[in-house]
Design goal:
The structure holds 2 protein chains of 2 kinds. Chain A is mainly alpha-helical. Chain A has helices spanning about 1-15, 20-45, 50-65, 65-95, 115, 120-135, 150-160, 160-190, 195-225. Chain A contains 9 helices and no strands. Chain B has 2 domains: about 5-100, Ubiquitin-like (UB roll), CATH 3.10.20.30; about 115-135 and about 145-245, Fumarate Reductase Iron-sulfur Protein, Chain B, domain 2, CATH 1.10.1060. In chain B, strands 2-1-5-3-4 form a 5-stranded mixed beta sheet. Classes of the chains: A mainly alpha, B alpha+beta.
């Protein structure tokens, strides 16, 4: 009887964020918001193909709305922190605690490469985001930087081969991360349907591919001399 | 037919175990995996050695007692098949097989291929039931159940609690098992009144037992001998999220 009472008390003490299901929901919601940013950011950046005035004008427009800009920045920062905090907590549980003795032989039957490497693609993307901010927002990335001239900064930055290479690699990893995350988040939030889930999975891969192609087209265009 | 079997041997829960190589002869293709172990054990007993301990009961794939890893796959290479129903014709003469117990912190090894799955019982005790007395069987159509819901509840109820989902999951999560129980009861009118409380309590107990979290890889679905689908995990998440919002 007393052990039952203790068990019930322990269960009641677990609040939403204490459980794995709660943390996955937090990851899913923060992931959706971060995905929205990735999409909008790419749409904004593709204006590079319309010339310096257009892209620099767009950058100026964003800076002209400091309240919205900082609101968005703080929201994104909060989402990044929630996404990382939840995933680190779950990764520690999954990798270190849940299976102390591993298998001598183990074969995966269904998990995709992208899904199995979320723990790796995530941190690499974080490193990339930090360098990306250093390069194009703070101007301390080691490539030429002119305040307010986004177009020139992008062209000068991507002319440096290692910078472009790291960018392209990071975008491919981001695409892999999204290809799993964009469909997985539906199940984390409670949606799975035999008719729609296969469609969602295909759409997730398609959207991730579009994001990779759209973003890496910029350094490739700079390196090829199409954008100068 | 002959098989080379590498089997995890462990004296008891406290001792360390190791893989031991056996050459199992006198087998034939119509035998099940468990019968192959029976034959091996007879030889071991004749030689005065300790037989390999493994769990089994019905040997017709419906009780959920048996199961171990065969070459890194829970219940072996044949889909929708428990270990007891896996026949040797799926292997070639002379094949080398690695037999290991389920591995999870929440499933401690008791001996050889046997693990303690009491954690599953405690998850069930946390809410995998209907509290109201059901009395004698009601008239057939007294409680209408839509056909679609009845089918999905029945599909989820096919879970035999063998633990293959936990064993196959890279995170040792108990999501498919817990999801199957929550879906099976939550979809039916009799289980509806406790639907939210059940989701809160069973998920909490799963977490307290030390299982990992679901990362939507689908390894559990691939390993499940009863074909439980990932959909039940979404159902569980939905019930849990709704219950968390409404909780007072």
């Amino acid at each position: 009887m007393s052990t039952t009472a203790v068990a019930v008390a322990n269960r009641k003490s677990l609040r939403f964020y204490d459980t794995t299901v709660g943390k996955k929901a937090v990851m899913a919601v923060s992931g959706i918001i971060l995905f929205g940013f990735v999409l909008a950011h790419m749409a904004g950046n593709l204006q590079i193909y319309e010339g310096p005035e257009k892209l620099n004008g767009y950058a100026k427009l964003l800076r002209a709305m400091p309240a919205a800009l900082w609101g968005a920045r703080l929201t994104l920062l909060l989402m990044v922190l929630l996404h990382i905090w939840s995933s680190v907590k779950l990764a520690l549980l999954n990798k270190l605690e849940a299976r102390p003795t591993g298998y001598v032989r183990h074969k995966n039957q269904s998990a995709s490469y992208a899904a199995r490497t979320m723990y790796w693609s995530g941190p690499i993307i974080l490193c990339f985001v930090i360098y990306h901010l250093m390069e194009f927002t703070w101007g301390v990335g080691g490539t030429p930087y002119l305040e307010g001239n986004v177009y020139a900064n992008v062209v000068a930055g991507f002319k440096v081969l290692p910078v472009s290479a790291f960018y392209i690699l990071s975008m491919i990893l981001l695409g892999m991360h999204l290809s799993h995350g964009l469909s997985s988040l539906f199940r984390s939030l409670g949606f799975d349907h035999p008719r729609y889930t296969p469609v969602i999975k295909r759409l997730a891969v398609a959207i991730s591919t579009i994001i990779v192609i759209g973003n890496i087209s910029i350094p490739i265009s700079v390196l090829a001399g199409w954008v100068k | 037919m002959k098989l080379i079997l590498h089997i995890w041997r462990q004296k008891n829960a406290a001792s360390a175990g190791r893989m031991v190589r056996y050459e199992a002869g006198d087998l034939n293709a119509d035998m099940s995996m468990l019968e192959a172990l029976d034959v091996l054990n007879e030889r071991l007993i004749e030689k005065g050695e300790e037989p390999v301990a493994f769990e089994h009961d019905c040997r017709e794939g419906i009780c959920g007692s048996c199961g171990f890893m065969i070459n890194g796959v829970a219940h072996g290479p044949q889909r929708l098949t428990t270990t007891c129903q896996l026949t040797l014709r799926h292997f070639k003469d002379g094949d080398e097989l690695y037999l290991e117990p389920w591995r999870a912190k929440a499933f401690p090894v008791l001996k050889d291929l046997i693990v303690d799955r009491s954690a599953f019982d405690r998850i069930i005790a946390a809410g995998g039931y209907i509290s109201v007395p059901t009395g004698s069987a009601p008239d057939g159509n007294a409680i209408p159940v839509p056909k679609d819901k009845a089918d999905r509840a029945m599909d989820a109820a096919a879970c035999i609690g063998c633990g293959a989902c936990v064993a196959a999951c890279p995170n040792a999560a108990a999501a498919l098992f817990t999801g199957a129980k929550i879906t099976h009861l939550g979809l039916l009118p009799q289980g509806e009144p406790e639907r939210h409380e059940r989701a809160l309590n069973m998920v909490a107990q799963w977490n307290l037992e030390g299982f990992g979290s679901c990362t939507n890889l689908g390894e559990c679905e691939a390993a499940c001998p009863k074909g439980i689908r990932l959909e039940v995990i979404a159902h569980m998440n939905r019930d849990y999220l709704a219950a968390s919002c409404r909780r007072r």
